[in-house]
Amino acid sequence: MSTSRQLLEMAWEAAREGVLVFSEERVVYLNPVAAALLGVEREKVLGRPLLLALRDHKLEALCHLGGEVTVEARGRMLWAKSVPGVLLLWDQTEEQARLEALEESSRVLAHEFRTPVTGMLSLLEALQAGLSGAEHDEALALLYQETQRLKRLVEDLPLTKRPSQERTFALEELQPRLERFLAPMLAERGSWIAWDIRHTIRANPDAVYQALLNLLDNALKYGPSGKIEVVSQETPEGVWIEVRDRGQPLLEFERLFQPGARGMHAANVRGTGLGLALVRRLASGWGGEAYGRALAQGNAFGLTFPRYPGAKVVVQDPEGETYA
Q: What Pfam families does this protein map onto (predicted)?
């Protein structure tokens, strides 16, 4: 073997791309990367028919016709290029996964920004329509509050990675903001919220507000009009809070937390299917979980919060008595 050929083969052996050389429909050479991507043993395919190594008609056709293509093979996404006698392979599985993750993040961020922007537009429209006195001042205060929240989103995204923004606070602190923001939708739907959230948690208040807002928004969109309950409870492990509606009990919940998934009653409701996916992402940011469960007459979507250092354990027993 000549020195130049030895150097060339050494380069092929060390290449990050898969290299397969063929002649007269038979495999002449393939490097370790090509063998791994094709899922074959080099010794068993050398000198054998090309299709035995490729085991894919799209790749075989590419070898005959030339050109390049992206193809899914052996559970991986491969970019393949063929020139006379040579097939080059490049594993794009991780790159494809990164692109899909980036697209998902973009959709989630768009969904995340939509809420404060929608609220700000509603407040501006109300101000333009002409509010006076206390209502005018309250609308300005709310507009300032939503602007500040939008500013924090811009400066410190994503919400799931803000340990410095965590603090200990009472869940009841979020109630007025949620009620004011949802007031137009509640009135339109003929619904109201019954609150029982007397517990304290440690998390990012903006993240919890966003998660609860999404859960309440879902209950209003997909549940029947009427009473919606927001209930919290304490356990030795921490605190949970649930948004409960009186809709038809669902048979499946886990799928609804996947990006783009929508429920059986969503056909006539405008939405992106990202609300619950974002809720789960936010919950993971404070070390909690997001879940759904069927009730005897309705559905509950909830959040959990782990017990924080120094928290006093106060648990309510089935008779309603509390103990520390």
A: HATPase_c, HisKA, PAS_8
